[in-house]
Write a structure and sequence with these properties.
This protein is mainly alpha-helical. It contains 13 helices and no strands. Belongs to the COQ4 family. Lyase that catalyzes the C1-decarboxylation of 4-hydroxy-3-methoxy-5-(all-trans-polyprenyl)benzoic acid into 2-methoxy-6-(all-trans-polyprenyl)phenol during ubiquinone biosynthesis.
Length: 300
């Protein structure tokens, strides 16, 4: 069965590499080089800071100097690892990924594909919200990454006990996870939204740390509720709704009586976690950081 799933997804992936791009790509800023795309959030911030509206117009991500005679060859790859796909191909990928993820929730690759092919509107809103937030603007300007080649984990481990950086390394060690395991975004056809999704993946463990949640099923579902309510990503909402179906009776009782109410309160009251520049908070007390973000103490 796994071999069949692999062959199906591999075939679909091959099709996606050569498929026609859907017309809406031509209307956006995607003729830009990767370097130019990295500058777009700052240009967008400078020209739209006062004119932001409550909805996201179609032209939000369009580059102001996009030529009319777009060369399709330049649309093929907007960022490293990008695989352009049209709506039909995304639908095939999302159905296949959802099926594979339901059969085996440990298939992180399928969960990743599902998030990329179903998150367009949520990512648009997330980007727009980050632009409006001063700290979110900094993140979009700097485009920081969470990786052991960039972050000195040994240095964080030697920070005083109780600091956020020390707690993060302890979380990684206790749960035997690494920041290097996050897959690159491939199927998001906008360089800026692709970064927002990549950022979400890479700060997921930082969410666990600041929320005080382990990586077991109960902890993951609790974090997914907060992520789903704050980001509105379909993948997060699906994990929050369907994850509890795998709980044992005692877990379900604890979840309904304690963890779920806590997650809903935190999601509503706390600052959007995607707007937090965590890399500038390593030396901050975890207690102070939770107080600043309005996160009540975890129920553990």
């Amino acid at each position: 069965m796994q071999r069949l799933n692999f062959e199906v997804m591999y075939s679909v992936k091959r099709v996606c590499k050569v498929g026609r791009l859907y017309p809406s790509l031509v209307r956006r800023h995607q003729t830009l080089s990767t370097a130019e795309s990295r500058d777009l959030p700052l240009k967008y911030i400078e020209s739209h800071r006062v004119e932001q509206s409550s909805h996201i117009p179609e032209s939000t991500f369009r580059h102001p100097h996009l030529p009319r005679d777009v060369d399709d060859k330049r649309l093929l790859q907007l960022y490293e690892h990008h695989i352009p796909t049209n709506y039909f191909q995304k639908m095939i990928l999302s159905v296949g990924a959802a099926t594979a993820a339901l059969l085996d929730p440990k298939r992180a690759d399928m969960v990743a594909v599902l998030g990329e092919t179903t998150g367009h509107f949520a990512l648009s809103r997330l980007f727009d919200d980050m632009v409006r937030d001063p700290e979110g603007q900094e993140i979009l300007r700097d485009k920081p990454r969470i990786h052991s080649s960039i972050i000195n984990l040994d240095e964080l481990a030697h920070l005083p006990n109780g600091t956020f950086g020390h707690a993060y390394v302890k979380f990684l060690n206790d749960n035997q996870v690494t920041p290097d395991s996050r897959l690159p975004v491939q199927y998001v056809d906008d360089a800026d939204m692709a970064y927002v999704l990549q950022r979400y993946r890479e700060v997921h463990d930082l969410f666990h740390t600041v929320l005080g949640m382990p990586t077991n099923m109960l902890g993951e579902v609790t974090v997914k509720w907060i992520e789903g309510m704050q980001t509105q990503l379909p993948m997060c909402i699906g994990g929050a709704i369907y994850g509890p179906l795998r709980f044992r009776p005692k877990q379900r009782q604890l979840y309904l009586s304690t963890y779920l109410p806590w997650a809903i309160r935190v999601a509503k009251a706390a600052k959007p976690l995607m707007h937090v520049y965590f890399e500038k908070r390593w030396k901050q007390s975890l207690v102070d950081l939770r107080r600043e973000l309005n996160i009540e103490d975890p129920p553990i």
